[in-house]
Amino acid sequence: MIKKRFFKTRDDVEVTFETSVAEPVEGVSVVCDALDWTPVPMRLVGGAWKARVRLPVNRSVQFKYLASGGVWFNDTEADAYFNTDHGENSVVDTHRPQ
């Protein structure tokens, strides 16, 4: 699940990423092109992994989840998907609603 919070006076959007993992893992991170693919650790809250990240407004940001053990996976509720030379990435749309 992806939740977006826009601000009237800021040029970024607060995006909350939330995902579940079927098998037990030690940790999950979200990585995205807007943050130079630097992993942002997620917290386990009530059975779901969550992270809140500030992203630039009015962009299509590619991202993936990275679970411990080097397992990459996409968000099943992403706004879109983008094919790359390395596989498919999830996309979150941060364009301000009209």
In short, what is this structure?
With about 100 residues, the protein is mostly beta strands.
Characterization of this structure:
The chain is mainly β and 98 residues long. It has a single domain (2-93), classed as Immunoglobulin-like (Sandwich). It is globular. A hairpin with a 3-residue loop joins strand 7 and strand 8 (71-73). The model has no long low-confidence stretch (mean pLDDT 94). Strands 3, 4, 7, 8, 9 and 10 form a six-stranded antiparallel β-sheet that branches. Helix content is 0%, strand content 56%.
Top keywords for this entry?
single chain; mainly beta; 6-stranded antiparallel β-sheet; 0% helix; 10 strands; 98 residues; globular; 4-stranded antiparallel β-sheet; Immunoglobulin-like
Q: Assign the CATH topology.
A: Immunoglobulin-like
**SS-based class:** mainly beta
Roughly what percent helix? under 10%
Q: Provide the CATH architecture.
A: Sandwich
Question: Please, what is the CATH homologous superfamily?
Answer: Immunoglobulins
Percent of residues in beta strands? over 45%
Number of spatially distinct domains = 1
**What characteristic shape results from the CA principal axes?**
globular
Give the total of beta strands: 10
| CATH classification, class level | Mainly Beta
- Low-pLDDT segments: none
Provide the succession of SSEs.
EEEEEEEEEE
Count of discrete alpha- or pi-helical segments spanning 4 or more residues: 0
Instruction: Evaluate the radius of gyration.
Output: 13 Å
Q: Quote the distance from N terminus to C terminus.
A: 22 Å
